[in-house]
Amino acid sequence: MVLLSLTASHRELDLDALERLSTGSSSVGRVVVGSCGPVAGAVIISTCNRFELYLDVDAPLSGDSVRHATRHVAELVAHASGVTGDVAARSFTVRTGPEVTEHLFAVASGLDAMVVGEREIAGQVKRSLAVAREQETTSKTLELLFQTASRTSKRVGTDTELGAAGRSVVALALDLAERELPPWDGTRAVLIGTGSYAGASVAALRARGCDDIRVYSQSGRAEAFAESHGVQPVESLVEALADADLVVSCSGARGRALAGRPELADLVVEPAENHLPGLVGERGPEASLGHVLDAAALVRARERAADRAGDEPEPRPLVILDLALHRDVDPGVADVEGVLLFDLATLKAHAPAVAHDVVAQAQRIVDAAARRFEETRLGREADAAVIALLDEAEVRVAAEIADSVDRLTAELAARGEPAPDEADVDVIARQVRKRVHAELHDKIVEVRAKATAEARAAEAALVQGAEALTLEASAQRDADPSRRR
Prior knowledge:
This protein is an alpha/beta fold. The chain is 57% helix and 11% strand. It is built from 17 helices and ten strands. The strands form two sheets. Strands 7-6-5-8-9-10 form a six-stranded parallel beta sheet. Strands 2-3-1-4 form a four-stranded antiparallel beta sheet, with helices on both faces. Helix 11 (222-229) links the parallel strand 6 and strand 7.
């Protein structure tokens, strides 16, 4: 078994490119496992700032075969997301063997996040494994890898200040919004979406003293979410916007609607009945191809707020946090008077630094856990060779026991004595096993060492091949005219 990962994140790509690449992420795992014979398992991590494929490959790989496998998987990703194969191939950083382990453990611990130390990624890693289980695309090796990553993340969270800081994309977004809002106990907040970020947003808002929280969901999940989180559901997003100080949008509905349907991305969709243009109605995902919230809708909502205010001063600014990778909110909203928009690109630019010693402590925990995992994994591969040797030894033991019993039976018969009984056979069996296993010890040590060395050498060659492929992809990205500023 060989671990192979293909990673695209905010560190390598701008968020627009990452959004395009991850559009079809929900189907990629099944497609890769179903169409690539050597791939025994796949787990996909797709978040607001990363798209990663973790593969368990049941085949020997060389540098050339890594290149071939990566290209093949990139073509599948391209087909699902609507980008070209070349774009997909050069978007990925390729890792193999121990580098895969080190990277995943760092990701799960928040060390590779847009906001270093982000704790939400730990839950996203767990959910990625749960989705792979549901889709039946995981494997024993990937199960152990992801479970160990989660345990490592938990230790980083409890043993370092990184975990105590409460850092997250949601927290950073609320920090930025706070400057433009009334006191939290007087802030009226509206959530768009009912996923993990919505739940994290409710907790973060309450921790700051905000109790007026409403939720809207174009998929009809608002009431269930509201009941479980103690907030108020709203049926009309327009009404909620006209009365809101803060909007936290994290549904990603636009990305889900476009998944696997890139040819529909430019269609203009008319609004459903009783909804303003640009606001998603209830006609299902095929109709939900635009932004969840656009500039025209915000203008109408602000006008309604002004009408309600009457002769009072202008309504307070409306702060909108778009935390969805697939942009729930039309960027044109930023041009609407009285509206402030913070999206992921803004958050990335404002992500605070973390003390070097805190990061270093967390990194040491990650490195130690990765080493232990790799030693265990390589040990399991060496065990396969040892098991084969033990199987051969058992065949030899059985043959020698039978031969010894036959000789003793003949000797006893020649002396006119009865054949050996069960106790005699047991004595012979113990003697034979002791001798064979004593002779086997040195061979087991030799075979284990040889198998481990071969596995390490093979993975070193794979790392070199992956590094060459990544350098090639980086050069192609740098040379891409569309990426030049």
